[in-house]
Amino acid sequence: MNLHSLRRLAESRLREAGIDTPDLDARYLLEHALGLTRTDFITKSEQTVSETDAARALALIDRRVAREPVGRILGHREFWTIDLALNPDTLEPRPDTETVVEAVLKALPDTKAPLSLLDLGTGTGCILLALLAELPNARGLGVDLSPLAVEAAAGNAERNGLAGRARFQTGNWANGIRDRFDIVVSNPPYIPSAEIATLAPEVRDHDPRRALDGGPDGLEPYRIIAAQLSTLLVPGGLAAFEVGQGQAPDVTRLLAAQGFHEIEQLRDLGGIERCVRGRNGLTPRE
């Protein structure tokens, strides 16, 4: 068959399987399997595809039909302006998390300042590395309980030319950290334990449970981090957290109880309150 026919067959299989974006997913997977570019689908649409190449491409389509996420199949995922490799111990970064990056950048009066950042539960390093890409004089530390996640994050720093300003270590949240930071960010596990079984199979079956399970009410990691913030942030330092749907008021209360002010709830592109941002104690000028 030719490339056009193969693409249509791939899209049809994905559509019949109920995949939300069959056209886009088929293009990504065929590009990967056949070593093509987006332009090739236009300029080479009549080009014959060998049986071997077609079988290799359709094997990836079958994995997507089985609800394996495209990012897992490709082994990497774009986030903000960077590209991130994944492994089994990392949460797959999603566009919702870019709300945290945007919230931090909008709160900074000087993006050229020599800021220090801490990312708790860093996973792929997505939040920290996206911020470092926008803050040329900043440095950051990412912490994760999983050594494999730390390995992935360090590799992603190298992959995106940020290794000189990012370091990563294993740890249980901020336990043992003695430094103070200008900014603390986190996308902690926030799914209530009993709800994990109801998640989409792309999440439930492929993201590590450790990165999903937020305890009985989904708020346990926020309680732990909130109690540590006063010793982690400089006066007036900024904290920003991704939150699950409906959790913003609870996380706001946790920050307020720790003496935070200027607390705001920011919405993602879907209109969900996805990020809670606040400042620690008095501002430096006060």
UniProtKB/TrEMBL annotation:
Domain spans labelled Release factor glutamine methyltransferase N-terminal: 6-75
Enzyme class, broadest EC rank: transferase
Stretches assigned to the Methyltransferase small domain: 104-192
Binding annotation for S-adenosyl-L-methionine: G121, T122, G123, T124, G125, D144, W173, N187
The entry's keywords: Methyltransferase, S-adenosyl-L-methionine, Transferase
Family as reported in the entry's similarity comment: Belongs to the protein N5-glutamine methyltransferase family. PrmC subfamily.
Name of protein: Release factor glutamine methyltransferase
Binding site for substrate: N187, P188, P189, Y190
Catalytic activity: L-glutaminyl-[peptide chain release factor] + S-adenosyl-L-methionine = N(5)-methyl-L-glutaminyl-[peptide chain release factor] + S-adenosyl-L-homocysteine + H(+)
Gene: prmC
Gene source species: Azospirillum doebereinerae
UniProt-listed NCBIfam families: hemK_fam, RF_mod_PrmC
EC number, UniProt record: 2.1.1.297
